[in-house]
Amino acid sequence: MIAIVNYEAGNLTSVSRALSHLGLVSKITDKHDEILGADRVIFPGVGAAGKAMQIIKEKGLDNILLEVVKRGTPFLGICLGTQIILDESEEGNTECLGLIKGKARRFPNLGLKIPHMGWNNIELLRMHPVFKGIDGRAQFYFVHSFYPETQDNKSVVARTDYGITFASVIANGNIVATQFHPEKSGKEGLKILYNFSKWDGME
Amino acid sequence: MLSKRIIVCLDVRDGKTTKGIRFKGNVDIGDPVEMAKKYYEQGVDELVFYDITASAEGRDIMVDVVDRVARNIFIPFSVGGGIRSTQDMHRILDAGAEKISVNSAAVLNPKIISEGAALFGSQCIVLGMDAKKVHKSERIPSGYEVVINGGRTYMGMDALEWAKRAEDLGAGEICLNSIDADGTTDGYELELTGLISSSVSIPVIASGGAGKPEHLKEVFVEAGADAALIASMVHYGWYTIPQIKSFLKDQGIPVREVI
After folding, report:
1. A147 contacts in chain B (CB < 8 Å)
2. What is each CA distance from B43 to A132, A145, A186, in whole angstroms?
């Protein structure tokens, strides 16, 4: 079973629908035992970092997620889920989960539209099992005003250009996280979810 | 590089896709879920469903349509039409839509934008705006007036001012429909689109008037639109999504390749 962590941040049903389309069993849950007992954990989300962290703490999910990562359970962050696994976010100066070293930064004002919304490329810097078989021309659906910046370059799996070049996929051990929405990125996006469902959490 | 988005618009009445000219004389043209699947397979970037049903029963049918679309296509889609409260938004988002488009309801009650953005995030709230060219005046300095009720009611509001205000209220995107161009297939209203797109920092979707791929090129290159809404040109089978994308790619416009 794949646990989709419910912290009341946006459209969780779209992730579960994509998984069920792939024939995968998942459950949207905030129950500690269900998350700890899951084979895999998906941490999605849209919205503001501050409010998200507040709910995560209220529900006691911060320690649970730490434990999930420590146990080596394959963990997929999506969008806001990719930002709040870092140490902190510039969005409301929020202290975050610290699962990967780094911070979420606001896009600088370069005259481009904010949010970065729509389909964009990713440039894979290294191979990762979750990106096996992904077509290099494929684009993915992004919608965000903040982006992940990791302390360590080794954590960056792919990058994307939008005025600046930012890390669009980050990973460390059993954690992999995409700034874009694989559940809304057509067939190549579904492939990423499928690969994740087969991944053992090792690079 | 960020692609220009091509968005297919489906007007839905009592659970059927319908197409009208300047909001008059609608004809049913198919099942919205089957049509959505077809465009998804063809590689469309996004879909919009406008519920033009008036009845309460029709609203329930729409929720069911949204649910079935969400189970079958895995690209973003928004739903507009008849959404008047955050409860209405909740129902549609729960059924699987990505974004909500508010139009007349936002003009009559602008707070719905800020309330929706606070609850669901700005990325969820699209301001749909119908605008009509009028004489420039003190009240309408841009020369484009906001109209509601499908173009029937003039609101005495300047379209440019309204766009800026909606951005301040928390709208994440503006879908700008020209009542003059809508349904004509003679091309987008470039002046209006350029004016709004260059004045707000959120993405602008041009709507109304697309009849051939050249029209999309114009609105992307000349008016700076971030996305273009199309309907007739694909619904009637004049063009397919791959044909439109291939034309735009040849013109040097970044589009998502259909893989």
Report:
1. none
2. 22, 26, 8
User: Does B68 contact A at CB distance below 8 Å?
Assistant: no
Give the DSSP H/E element, type plus range, for residue A89. Answer: strand A88-89
Q: Which residue has the tokens 């501050």?
A: A50
Q: What is the pTM of this model?
A: 0.95
ipTM of the prediction greater than 0.85, yes or no:
yes
Count of alpha carbons within 13 Å of A114, Cβ hemisphere only? 12
pLDDT for residue A61 is more than 80: yes
pLDDT 10s digits, A91-117: 999 999 999 999 999 999 999 999 999
B119 burial via Cβ count (<10 Å: 0-12, 13-18, 19+): middle
First to last CA, chain B: 17
Residues of B in contact with A46 (CB under 8 A): 121, 123-124
Catalytic-residue membership of A181: yes
Kindly report the backbone phi and psi dihedral angles of residue A190, in degrees, each rounded to the nearest multiple of 5, phi listed first. Answer: -60, -35
List the alpha helices (DSSP H) in chain B: 32-42, 56-72, 86-94, 104-108, 111-120, 159-169, 190-197, 213-221, 232-235, 241-250
For tokens 């009650």, name the residue: B109
State the best of B4, B73, B74, B176 to mutate against chain A, taking most chain A CBs within 10 Å.
Answer: B74
Domains of chain A in start order, with CATH, are: 2-198 (3.40.50.880)
Average pLDDT (B131-156) is 93
Mean pLDDT along residues A138-159: 97
**What residues contact A171, with CB distance under 8 A and at least 6 apart?**
A128, A130, A155, A157, A177, A203
